[in-house]
Write a structure and sequence with these properties.
This protein is an alpha/beta fold and 340 residues long. It has a single domain, classed as Metallo-dependent phosphatases (Purple Acid Phosphatase, chain A, domain 2, 4-Layer Sandwich), CATH 3.60.21. The chain has nine helices and 14 strands. Strands 1, 2, 3, 11, 12, 13 and 14 form a seven-stranded mixed beta sheet that branches. A seven-stranded mixed beta sheet has the order 4-5-6-7-8-10-9, covered by helices on one side. A hairpin with a 2-residue loop joins strand 9 and strand 10. Helix 1 runs antiparallel to helix 9, helix 4 packs parallel to helix 5 and helix 5 packs parallel to helix 6. It is elongated and about 85 Å long. The chain starts with a helix and ends in a 5-residue tail after the last helix. About 6% of the residues have low confidence. The structure holds zinc ion. Zinc ion (ZN) binds next to loops.
Length: 340
């Protein structure tokens, strides 16, 4: 009987541990609504008109990110492409580089990708690679690699959040089959990472994928829908959201581009805050330039993140342990029908 009590105690202990893992016990003590597992990524949509006409608004955005990086636990800053309006304008590249250097100086992880306006002619990404080349990123702990080799035309990066590992794939405007083949080979090396795809053109205002969007969807997102939970794009002026379910996995796909607003975009950016314990990502559209939030339904919303961060890392054990514990309790009761 003693050994049965011991086994029951161990099983009960395991059951409690799997239901209430250590991190949730620790964080439940915290009074803050923003706990140690929560984290944010920041999205900078098309900045091309700022680089041309309003560099101060671009700088205001990156300065705000730097100033709030600790409070929001910003783990990564992403750009949706079209850093500049004219790929051959050195002054616009200088402006973009100056604004983004604030992130560099703040120590926040960041990367970029080429939109259509980065090209200074057919296939010419010389200026892009001069100002945002692989040499700027290759020494960073969060930089995974790039394609084609020696360029920063496409790249992948790492970040950690909520005790999980994430991968970001930044695809150039209209990535070729070769780019997607590189990404397929790369992602296969990180089967347990959650994946975010960022590319310039993907969704239209009607929420339908463009032809290029479908190219990426069919050749990268769908084959890895167990990992890819978020696709972000700009290019088309406005906002649109869609969520598809592939083999039970939700894939959220979001367009944001504010360049039609006054002053080339009025400084609007997006804050994605991940709340692992609530299994939610809360998206906010904010302008540090206006000090204002855009709160309509397609600018501020919550995404389900059930397949993003496993809340109970040992969930696979919970059910068998629960059944075993209950079975053992019943078995003991049957052996001693009149406990004294
Ligand atoms: Zn564009």
């Amino acid at each position: 009987m003693k050994s049965q009590s011991l086994v029951t105690a161990i099983l009960l202990g395991l059951l409690l541990f799997t239901l209430f893992p250590l991190n949730s016990l620790i964080t439940s003590v915290s009074c803050s609504s923003f706990d140690s597992l929560d984290f944010s990524i920041i999205i900078l949509p098309d900045t091309q008109y700022y680089s041309r006409d309003h560099p101060e608004i671009f700088t205001n955005q990156t300065q705000w990110v730097a100033d709030n990086a600790v409070d929001l636990n910003v783990v990564f800053v992403l750009h949706l492409g079209d850093l500049v309006e004219n790929g051959d304008s050195v002054s616009q590249w200088e402006n973009a580089a100056k604004s983004m250097s604030i992130l560099e100086d703040s120590g926040v992880s960041w990367e970029v990708l080429p939109g259509n306006h980065e090209f200074a002619g057919d296939e010419n990404l010389v200026n892009y690679n001069n100002y945002f080349g692989v040499g700027n990123f290759s020494g960073k702990s969060w930089f995974g690699g790039s394609y084609p080799s020696g360029t920063n035309n496409n790249n992948f990066c790492f970040f950690s959040g909520g005790e999980n590992e994430f991968l970001i794939f930044n695809f150039q405007y209209q990535p070729s089959d070769a780019v997607l083949a590189w990404a397929n080979t790369t992602v296969a090396q990180y089967p347990s990472s959650r994946v975010i795809v960022v590319t310039h053109e993907y969704l239209g205002l009607d929420g339908e994928r463009t032809e290029e969007g479908n190219h990426i969807w069919n050749n990268f997102v769908v084959p890895h829908a167990d990992q890819v939970f978020l696709v972000l794009c700009g290019h088309i002026h406005g906002e649109a959201n869609r969520t598809d379910v592939v083999n039970g996995h939700q894939v959220h796909q979001l367009l944001s581009d504010y360049q039609d607003s006054e002053n080339g975009g009025n400084g609007w950016l997006r804050i994605f805050t991940f709340y692992p314990q609530e299994e939610e990502i809360r998206v906010k559209t904010f302008s540090p330039y206006l000090n204002s939030y855009e709160t309509d339904a397609n600018s501020q919303f919550t995404l389900s993140a059930t397949n993003v961060i496993p809340e109970f890392p040992f969930l696979g054990f919970t059910l068998p342990i629960a059944i075993a514990t209950i079975a053992l309790i019943f078995y003991r009761k049957k052996l001693s029908p009149n406990p004294k």
